[in-house]
Structure prediction request, 176 residues.
Amino acid sequence: MKRFSKKWIISKVLIYLLIYSILHFLYDLIPVLPIALISGTNESIFTHMKIGFYAYFFTCLVDYQITKTQIESKNTYFWNTLLMSSLMPLFLFALWYILPVFLEHLEPMWFELTYSFLILVINGIMAANLEDSYSKTEYSKNTKIIILLLFISSIIIYSGYTFKTPYIDVFYIPIL
Prediction:
């Protein structure tokens, strides 16, 4: 399978959806701390963003094993993996909240689940296409530092807030 072909994009999105689904329910099956740090522990938006982060990172690890002989620059692949994994939660957040701007509640439940699944698919397609665009990029030292800081910050935030959420909410004025 040729990297960046339609078949590759579809395969990568399917792997992403599979890993996302596994991480969504893994803690319910194996409720131990290491699993909690990378998987869903509740149904909050934040938890789904965490799942998106780790699911895409693991998807890239699988993709690397499948297509490593076709990767022109392993260095660029590495930095793209860190960058796209870090951006995935932001894409999920931005895309998912488009419809709630117009609809106060996404009901019935089948509608919300279908919408959420569609957002995951679009998210995966966007990431795979951005990877294609960035596949020939040679990142500067400063850009690599920024990507690394973003990736490490993502790990700290998504895993660190697994059991203790911050007092500041995204949509509500915090009560101090």
